[in-house]
Amino acid sequence: MMAQFRKRDTGPELALREALSRQGVPFDTYLDLPGSPDIVLTKTKVVVFVHGCFWHGCPKHYRLPRSNRAYWIRKLARNQSRDRANARRLRNMGWHVATIWECSLARDPDAAVDRILRVGTRRSPA
Questions:
Q1: Which 3 state secondary structure label does DSSP give 12?
Q2: Which tens digits make up the pLDDT trace of 12-53?
Q3: How would you classify residue 57: left for phi > 0, otherwise alpha for psi between -120 and 50, otherwise beta?
Q4: 2-14+33-120 CATH, one of 3.30.70.100, 3.40.50.620, 3.40.960.10, 2.40.50.100
Q5: 90 touches 47 (CB < 8 A)
Q6: DSSP reduced 3-state for 116
Q7: CA distance linking residue 44 with residue 117, whole number of Å
Q8: Is the pLDDT of residue 81 over 50?
Q9: What is the pLDDT of residues 58-68, one digit of tens each?
Q10: 43 and 96 Cβ atoms separated by less than 8 Å
């Protein structure tokens, strides 16, 4: 069943890429890094994960499905644990990590770009 869901080039990812391009921000996609970040700004060492509200458990919009609840609770916990582990590995490699929620892109993609650019101006992790 999960195979039918797109993992790359999702609507939110495309919206963010369009906003980055509109602001003239150079980026790469799908470099071989832990967690397969959706967007990579190599110059400022920023990786971006675009998280879907359902699959990653958006604190504002996630709603647990009514059927097979135990499965979905475990699934979400595994997804979130994997997300944290990947972010930790990337930070240990010297990358800045930005997570952008699908709902924030729907509201204001340009604000998401501003947030990503701010992440890139932080001091490097120790």
A1: helix
A2: 999 999 999 999 999 999 899 999 999 999 999 999 999 999
A3: left
A4: 3.40.960.10
A5: yes
A6: helix
A7: 9
A8: yes
A9: 989 888 988 99
A10: no
- As a whole number of angstroms, the distance between CA 116 and CA 26 comes to 12
- Please report which residue ranges of 1-126 form alpha helices under DSSP H: 11-22, 53-56, 69-92, 102-107, 109-120
Whether 87 contacts 79, CB under 8 Å:
no
Backbone angles phi, psi at 117, to 5 degrees: -65, -35
Strand bridging mode 46-51 / 96-101 = parallel
Residues 76/70, Cβ–Cβ less than 8 Å: no
Q: How many whole angstroms separate alpha carbon 85 and alpha carbon 59?
A: 19
Two tokens, residue 89 = 């590995």
DSSP 61: T
Residue ranges of domains in the chain: 2-14+33-120
